[in-house]
Structures are given as C-alpha cells and as structure tokens.
Amino acid sequence: MEGGLCCGIAGAFLAEDTPSRALLVSMWTAPTHRKSGVGRMLVEAIEQWSRERGAGRLELLVTSTNEPAIRFYTSMGFELTGRSEPHPYDEVLLDFEMTKML
Known about the structure:
alpha+beta, Aminopeptidase
C-alpha cells in the first residue's frame, strides 16, 4: 500500500498433494508501480512464506503472450518447464508453467 492505494498483490498456497510444492497463483502490480521493485518484493515475500512452510519449489503459470511477465519471472530465477495448458478464459492462449527451486 502507498498513500491508501494498492501497489500490488500476490497470492500463493501449498499444493494439497505435495506440500513441498508452493503455487504462486496470483500476481499483480499497479501500472503506476511497475519496474519499481514492487513485483520483486512480492515474489520474494511469497518465496519466504513458502520456505517457512517447508516448500522446496515454487511454481506458477504465466500466459504465453505475456512476454514482460515471462522475462520478469526468468529474472527472478524461474525456468520454463516445457509444460503448458489452455488458458482458462481464452482457449486460443496457453499458460506456460514456470518453476523455481527454493
């Protein structure tokens, strides 16, 4: 938060079947705060939260056409796994899986 306005938000949970896997399921940075370090702080907070709960790996899905997000996650140490699935709201798009060892 900054001045009462939301700068960004991120959400994650542990996989039910494999608690050593954490899933970053939501990530958003306000357009006014992009490239300011807010996204990096959010991902680092999720990584810390995941480690504290015993996760050794953090996974996420990113839309295949979102090149800035793919570059951002790559800069944070995530790697494309080669797995993809149809985007839930647009069958023309794919979501790429990315993962990072913690």
